[in-house]
Amino acid sequence: MTSTAKNLFSPVKIGDLELPNRFIMAPLTRTRAPGHLPNALMAEYYSQRASTGLLITECTMVTEGTSSFGDDPGIYSQEQIEGWKLTTDAVHKAGGRIFIQIWHGGRAAHPLLNGGKEAVSASAIAIEGETHTPEGKKPYTVPRALTVAEIKEIVGDFRQAAINAKEAGFDGVEIHGANGYLIDQFLRESSNQRTDEYGGSLENRARFLTEVIEAVTEVMGSGRVGLRLSPLNSFQSMKENDPIAWTRFLSEHLNRFNLAYVHLMRADFFGLQQADVVSVARDAYKGHLMVNMGYSPEEANQVLADNQADSVAFGKGILANPDFVERVQAGAELNEPNPNTFYTPGAEGYTDYPFMTA
User: Fold this and answer.
1) So what CATH class is 12-341?
2) Residues with Cβ within 8 Å of residue 161, at least 6 apart in sequence
3) Catalytic residue from among 45, 46, 140, 181
4) Quick one: DSSP state of residue 277?
5) Domain residue ranges of the chain, discontinuous segments joined by +
6) Residue 132: how many CB atoms within 10 A of its CB?
7) 46 catalytic residue (yes or no)
8) Which pLDDT tens digit goes with each residue over 51-82?
């Protein structure tokens, strides 16, 4: 790799933002928001990691009563806006940049986590298996298929979430279109068996996403909006028979929006579905391509040098190393993440990972 080659430490313009490096903090659910309220502990966590080129928050509810994890944050109330200001202020004071990932759980939102509120989705098809609830592990419920009028209301919730994110001081938003949540439930055929204008063809299945992008970019400006996609991920009973065609269609479709970036997850959590979707997206998508899932810094540098992507998102590495950028630059040893504290309350395994010693 020559000194002029693109690498993790080279600056980059991503939409309207100038980033000092190409390290991205992937969105990571941490369930540290009791009552769905962002708080000072979360502000400390994100600001500790402000040397990362761009921070992306954990998935954040746009609609009340759509929790999939219990103590996941929201962005639908004034109290939540004020809570998030703690984080944006702290990150900006530390010299960082931060996008909020906005999201609707759809059929992954169990009624027992939401005061009995019924789960909804593209179609009345349940996720296989069980999930954690206040009453222990329970089977996912069969969701109710959304009406067209309700779809429009949820698009409005995404629009309001963008307005709220702007008020809370975020530099932009990432729309969560991945991992089997509501937008993905519309996008993929295993969960969308509708026969109206939101089902059937790829264009129809992408209609809800398209309307969300239009609503959010109208508020934020397209240069402050990103999108996350997971063409291969089978998490939460997701499947697409031809993920290559799906990736190519969406990559071409998204060119019209001039987004800040598309954030592509390259693999399946369970390894069941395999294909090279990154090369397809790189060929078809003309904007900034961010890639994610299991990249080491060494592989990430090679991917950037080979122009296969424009930035790389890291999850567990940044979770366990608030100074991940500095450690990689110094060739220093990395802290190991502790999976036992990924979703537990409090500072342990959250804000207490040590920084490098001098």
Assistant:
1) alpha beta
2) 60, 62, 75, 76, 102, 173, 216
3) 181
4) H
5) 12-341
6) 15
7) no
8) 999 999 999 999 999 999 999 999 999 999 99
